[in-house]
Sequence to fold (131 residues):
Amino acid sequence: MVRTALAAAATLGAVAAAVAPASAAVVTDDPRPAAGAHAVVPNPKTIKAAAYNQARSTLAQAGSQTAAKSHPIHGKTDVPVSYGTDLLAAARDEFRQTDKKLPPKDKKSDMSIPHYNAIHSAAKTMGIDKW
Fold:
């Protein structure tokens, strides 16, 4: 009985030693994303009014009527992040509607590549990752 227990413990120890390095490779404290992975950073609670205004201008120049009709922020240094996420979502939906007849090879995320680039540039300007 003691021999069986010792053999089981030795086997279990060998398995644990073999598994530990593999699991250690999966869970790391390294904050850098894996190659090709998109780092997901939570949206800030507020954004700078100047960043919102710059993003609004970028989207309007790309052809967003929603962004062109929205009012620039003035008299405030920060605004709620919802201002930016709402602006991005409206422009995204507008661009997708505008670009729906384009061939798939000319689109990315259901919009033209210039529209896609404008949306992501505006989002980056405001520090917004999800909208």
